[in-house]
Fold each of these.
Amino acid sequence: MTTTPWPVPVAQEGPRHPLDPEPVRATKAKAVFALGLFAALTGLFVGGVVPATVALHLARQARREAYASGGFLTGAAWLRRGERLAWTGLVLVAVAVVAVVVVAVVRLTEAPFGHDYPSNVD
């Protein structure tokens, strides 16, 4: 790799065709972000599983549509943020489930084993 002391000119793109659509943010990108945020906020209450799953599925669809649009659908940053929040929500759900299982096992081990008969029974 070589460096030059002067700025290298960037290749100019030709003028856009008049029938080309304007680049717009994908609406699914907004939905992915909103669902990911909701999943992260409700992850500890195990309610984040459904919105996180839906967000990850929508993100996959949105990426496919953005690729097929040839650059006229934007919103990749919102998709990344939404995916990260969705994964955070899933991790929080896993932490909550593991904590509940550990507490249940500890309480189960503290419970008396077998029948607890009165002292006058052989």
Amino acid sequence: MPADTNPYGGVFGGWLMSQMALAAGSLASRVGRGKAVVVSATDFAFPGAMAVGDELSVYCEVLATGNTSLTIAAESVARERNGEATVKVAGGTFKFVLLDEDDRPRTAVLPGKVST
């Protein structure tokens, strides 16, 4: 929306990052089977421009699993509003820590994994 634009009329990079964090957080909660919070965001690049009204898709993949954390890559692709043309508009990496019911870090017990 127009409120999410930078002074040059393009979509603000901070808005893109927040959408990516939401998507990556959804994957972290699903894979980690519980509460997951962002502790860092790195390696961000904005190779393309997104216009107001474009459709945004965010694709995420778990890159690494730590004792209490998940590292997730996120890629954002914009599709023009009235067509099929797409462009990669952002990419970056998020690290999440899995939390227990007392908001303390908990061991990552993931589907298909056996904890030791």
Amino acid sequence: MGFNPKDAIESVKDIATNAVERSADIVESAGYIIKGDVSDGVVGIVSSSMDIATHSVEKIKEIATGRDEDVDEIGG
């Protein structure tokens, strides 16, 4: 399967939507830090940031390969 511009646009929209939703979690975690719960706040920020990055990479793989499978599974 090749590159499909329509699917790419949908994937980019999905990446943006996910990032905005996770940003709310990051703001909430920042609130924990302000209230003095630094440990939980930092864990929440890192976790949400990693979720954004992971989701984005998965969607970019889909855009690049034109499918939902992992790039590593091409041969199998």
Amino acid sequence: MKFWVAVLLSFLPLWAQAVELGERLAPWTLLDQFDQAYTLDNQAQVLLVARSMDAAKQVDAALQGQPKGYLEARHVVFVADIQRMPRLIAKLFAVPAMQAYNYRVMLDRDARIAVRYPAPVDKVLWLQLEDGKLVARHEYASAAELRQALEQVQP
């Protein structure tokens, strides 16, 4: 019995942190691929969350050919959950490769932020924000769908 109580209590933080429509997102700060800090604020209109390498590749494919500053102009913030990646691989290969991207990637190295926004691991989570509140939620399984959605966001 104690085991099951412990298991249930271990999942409590995940349930407590999941954000619902109409709720204000708690502010957080992450470093990007250049170790520059970014703090989520009320200016963000869209939060993209990739919880796997496959999902992050969808974002990259959707942004191919877009100019530098494309996401920033649309007030879109991209968070990549890289906590499952071995730290040495991230430091030596993955993060330096991300520095060639023409967009900013907020790196969730310790699974502090991405876990707040549950979604299937193989899809890109789109959280539509208005003054810091969640107003809509979508999941994209393909780069083409994501690209089309991004094109609808006004700069």
